[in-house]
TrEMBL record, chains A, B:
Range of residues in the leader sequence: none
Species annotation: Olea europaea subsp. europaea
Similarity annotation: Belongs to the 'GDSL' lipolytic enzyme family.
Keywords: Hydrolase
GO function terms (MF aspect): hydrolase activity, acting on ester bonds
Pfam families: Lipase_GDSL
Keyword match Kinase: no
Protein name: GDSL esterase lipase At5g62930
SUPFAM superfamilies, sorted: SGNH hydrolase
Domain of life assignment: Eukaryota
Length: 239, 239
């Protein structure tokens, strides 16, 4: 049984196996070494994610994941009084929900590598353009998310990771270090192939620093070059 | 626990989670409905694949896959007396090895949907160009695989599927129905994004015809639009 890496999050995780997606790229990197399992729930915030915990990560599992990314906040940060209001979670509750998710995973297995990922920045103009492309003149003029509010949630996510001694990826901050960072977002919120590449690189970096480096992990079975064409059974005798 | 779809094969399966890959596209299509698990072994032929069967598909598993694609033959068809000779498997043995793989999977669970995929066509000029790009003047002038020989293996694969009453995908034949089919192959053998798209479409079609259609499968948890922002617990009470 090879180890499992679980990607737990909202639509940005759910879409991570699309062409150029960060989840698929991870699965490719860890092929024959670990299984990358997507547990992405479009539209979900941390409050709703709590209902899934016992189902996705049952206590007493014989094979809990070796690593899990927790990537929520984009929906929690939807503004009150705007079209995404239903998804809004107050900032203090967001932090506490993340804490409860981490605690549950640590209870599953204390050795699990847990990585917190902040929401990405919001390109408000990109969001409005996207709304107009969907609804034309009926589109709202007020963005349902702001970059300023995403920053508040990102900050709490990073601070909680520090408090708990966990690695984190500050995507909000990382992306905006690049001039023209809006190119990382396809609709002002979700990721383009270039945005996916950043998440992929950051996750691989954090995993490697934590000892989960694909090049250092063994293949599940012999590499084909180690198989003697005339005596193949020899390569497999110690399985 | 959601159902598992296993992709069992050689490098064409192993690489199926690269950007534009057919495996990643399947994982995206079945997100929240089934897990797509890659079991691709670069360089392997059916003879070597047999050694993995009991490990990858243990008898008596409580959660065997609901579906498995078996996608071998490109290495079995490597020619004797050429650079890939070590991988060669005689045509009669190839067919019998496939039969043993199918029998093992059916013994795991008789209800498993098993789909046989033939090797793709070989673009011999593309193979030679690829060899020259690697080895320059030292590259062999004789291709280690021919399109004619790939046809022989593809035919046996399809005939075995018919004999066993299993669905199959004749990739060798399907690809060559398109003028300029060489564009489907990146090095005369492995798949480009366009080649991956064909495999993806064919697998989705066969899965759907067999009743494993993603649009008809239930989500693992409530869609976010079904969650009442004020009473979220209601949507989750029947889990």
């Amino acid at each position: 049984m090879r180890p499992q890496i679980v990607l737990f999050g909202d639509s940005i995780t759910a879409q991570s196996f699309r062409s150029g997606g960060w989840g698929a790229a991870l699965a490719d990197t860890y092929t024959r070494k670990a299984d990358v399992v997507v547990r992405g729930y479009g539209g979900y915030n941390t409050r709703w994610a709590l209902f899934l915990l016992n189902h996705l990560f049952p206590m007493g599992s014989a094979t809990p994941p070796v690593a899990t990314t927790i990537f929520f906040g984009a929906n929690d940060a939807a503004l009150l009084g705007r079209t995404g209001e239903r998804q809004h979670v107050p900032i203090e509750e967001y932090r506490e929900n993340l804490r409860r998710i981490v605690r549950h995973l640590k209870n599953c297995t204390p050795t699990m590598l847990i990585v917190l990922i902040t929401p990405p920045p919001i390109d408000e103009l990109g969001r409005l353009e996207f709304a107009r492309s969907l609804y034309g003149d009926k589109a709202t003029e007020l963005p349902e998310r702001t970059n300023e509010m995403a920053a508040v949630y990102a900050k709490q996510c990073v601070e909680l990771a520090e408090e708990l001694g966990l690695p984190s990826i500050n995507l909000w901050s990382k992306m905006q270090k690049t001039e023209g960072w809006q190119k990382f977002l396809s609709d002002g919120l979700h990721l383009t192939a270039e945005g996916n590449a950043i998440v992929y690189e950051e996750v691989v970096k954090v995993f490697s620093e934590a000892g989960l480096s694909a090049p250092n992990m063994p293949y599940d079975f012999p590499h084909h070059s180690e198989i003697d064409g005339k005596n193949p059974e020899k390569a497999f005798q110690n399985l």
